[in-house]
TrEMBL record:
SUPFAM superfamilies: DHH phosphoesterases
Domain of life: Bacteria
The protein, known as: Oligoribonuclease
PANTHER family reported for this sequence: 3',5'-CYCLIC-NUCLEOTIDE PHOSPHODIESTERASE (PTHR42146), OLIGORIBONUCLEASE NRNB (PTHR42146:SF1)
Domain Oligoribonuclease NrnB C-terminal span(s) in chain numbering: 326-394
Organism listed in the record: Bacillus glycinifermentans
Length: 399
């Protein structure tokens, strides 16, 4: 009898689907939160009196704490069969043990997922027979979990995750296992396509609402966007990150679950390190942590009075970014920021006074005022009034 303890997201459940396809009724699968895994492992080891007859233990998409790491090592040395397969860099130290298989990236540069690593491990050890349908399913899980689906343009990966959240884990498992066994290729059925179209529209409406609720603050040296959301964390984090690229990362607060999800679109920001400081972990661009007392103070209590960010005007004809006529921004304190091209780059006028600092590009100048003043691109009518006032002042001066 095999035992699989895995994460309760798409990648973790993907491991369960692979395991049940390989072992059928000869595997017991349990899905856990990040904090719940160690309890399951402790229970398993307590029950393992005759370690050689307890059966094989697989742990996927999650890693154990130091105490359980030591216990698993003792279990393996005594003859117990265990394999931990993960793809988070915070678990790389487990490769020190024969039972640890942690890989963040493949040799060809593709990012790994737990499902892809587990599937390949079983195939290499003759425990599962590869099929085209399973290959396709595993790749969709990998593309979504690593967020490579967006760059690759594989919308089916995102839709697979949408379907995962629309039904129970048991129903999703049953659907996928039956489909993988009965079909030569993996695809969605007609009904699923229709409900997924509806779900896509629902997600878009949800993101539009959250775009109006995000606030901005500095936390431990990072410019952070904070939003409260209980659903669609990856979609919300990704879209808000692209909407407000001056933010280092997006913190998505789930107050009911007492969790913080962290997302970034920037290569220079590693949110797994930020999450690790609060007892969490994850990937460089997607991570999470519990809402500890310190996290609550930094992400909830202190930013609570801050007003939401205002988005840039998007229907303008005249007040455009990088315009030869300059670009006008404002903030909630009614300060005006006029960005204009100068001899040595881009300069900023703050309330009519040209600042000493110049910037090599428009993007750098805009990033500076957005991060430090929470400014936004104003509408055409405000820009036109601004230019008319400048003309009037010029005429009065020369007149």
């Amino acid at each position: 009898m095999y035992h699989l303890y895995s994460h309760n997201d798409l990648d973790g459940v993907g491991c369960g689907i692979v395991a049940k396809t390989a072992f059928g009724e000869q595997v017991e699968v349990r899905y856990n939160s990040v904090t719940g895994l160690d309890i399951q492992v402790e229970r398993f080891l307590d029950r393992a009196k005759d370690k050689r007859k307890q059966g094989g233990l697989f742990i996927t998409d999650l890693s154990v704490h130091q105490e359980n790491e030591n216990k698993l090592n003792e279990y393996a040395e005594a003859g117990g069969k265990v394999k931990l397969i993960d793809h988070h860099k915070t678990a790389l130290h487990l490769n020190e043990h024969p039972w640890g298989l942690v890989k963040v990236e493949y040799e060809d540069g593709r990012l790994a997922s737990a499902t892809s690593l587990f599937y390949e491990y079983l195939a290499e050890n003759g425990l599962i027979e590869k099929t085209k349908a399973m290959d396709q399913f595993v790749e969709l899980v990998r593309l979504y979990d690593t967020w490579e689906w967006e760059e690759a343009g594989v919308l089916e990966a995102k839709r697979l995750n949408d379907l995962f959240f629309m039904v129970s884990i048991d129903e999703f498992e049953e659907k996928m296992i039956r489909r993988l066994k009965e079909n030569d290729e993996f695809s969605f059925d007609e009904f699923e396509e229709k409900i997924l179209d509806m779900e896509e529209e629902k997600i878009e409406r949800y993101i539009r609402r959250k775009r109006r609720e995000i606030v901005q603050t500095f936390i431990q040296g990072h410019c952070v966007g904070i939003v409260h959301a209980e659903s669609y964390h990856s979609e919300v984090g990704n879209e808000l990150g692209k909407e407000f690229p001056h933010l280092d990362y997006i913190a998505i607060l789930n107050m009911g679950g007492k969790k913080v999800s962290l997302r970034t679109i920037h290569d220079e920001t590693d949110v797994s390190e930020i999450a690790g400081a609060f007892g969490g972990g994850g990937h460089a661009k997607a991570a999470g942590c519990p809402l500890t007392d310190e996290a609550f103070r930094l992400f909830v209590q202190e930013p609570f009075p801050v007003e939401p960010i205002k988005a840039d005007a998007f229907k303008n004809i005249y007040n455009l970014k990088e315009s030869e006529s300059g670009s006008l921004y404002e903030n909630r304190e009614e300060d005006q920021f006029y960005l204009f091209s100068a001899e040595n780059g881009w300069s900023i006028q703050l309330n009519g006074v040209t600042q000493n600092e110049t910037f090599a590009s428009f993007e750098e100048a805009e990033r500076f005022i957005k991060r430090n003043y929470a400014a936004w691109l104003v509408r055409d009518e405000t820009f036109v009034r601004f230019l008319m006032q400048r003309v009037k002042e010029h005429l009065n001066t020369t007149g």
